[in-house]
Amino acid sequence: IKELEIDYEKLIEAREEKGLSQSDVARELGIDRRRVWQYEKGVGLTLENFTKLMFFYEKPIEFFIKDNWYE
User: Fold this and answer.
1) Tens digits of per-residue pLDDT, 1-25?
2) What is the pLDDT of residues 18-56, one digit of tens each?
3) Helix boundaries (H) for the chain
4) How far apart are the first and last CA of the chain?
5) Contact 6, 50 (CB under 8 A)
6) From CA 28, how far away is CA 32, in angstroms rounded?
């Protein structure tokens, strides 16, 4: 089994499905808007913050995992 890879585009998709801006997400999570932008680009996203986003967006982990992880 390969290492799981996050599909960072799915962070954008989940945010947009909720009709939120990066500023909205930052305000809700108590972080800087630039940090949300970085996360969506795959920069500096920790497991802790990924988990917060996953629950905030109300999406299962499978939603964010690249499709080829099981190859």
Assistant:
1) 456 788 999 999 999 999 999 999 9
2) 999 999 999 999 999 999 999 999 899 988 999 999 999
3) 9-17, 22-29, 33-40, 47-57, 61-64
4) 7
5) yes
6) 10
